[in-house]
Fold this protein.
Amino acid sequence: MMYCPTCFNNSLHFDDKGVIDIIINKKQMDAGRIIYNLDPAERDKMLMEFAKKLDEFFKWYSNFQNKEPLCHVELVTSAVKCDSGCKMPTNLKTSVIDSIIPVSLIRDEFGRLGQKYNLEIELKI
């Protein structure tokens, strides 16, 4: 559970299904999002889709002329709700790092894809 920005209770949680935006170094591809599902039977499929989207981003980013080291990762969703029924601000974005997407997977994929696409990684999570 997380704190609700409206009622300040520890009553905020992720919806069972939603969309995660993938933003790296403040850059996002048009197709830079995945659908998540908290059903344990769907977990492996979701994590494979995440790895696929990261690969697409790295391939896209490797074609840039002025490449900065990849260091800032934002994995955010607006698919949250409060147990008290509070209305969420429209601009609310909540990080899913280490709650839906494990940090270890992010580090492993960045290391692997950095080598694959010859990109410098200075990951700060």
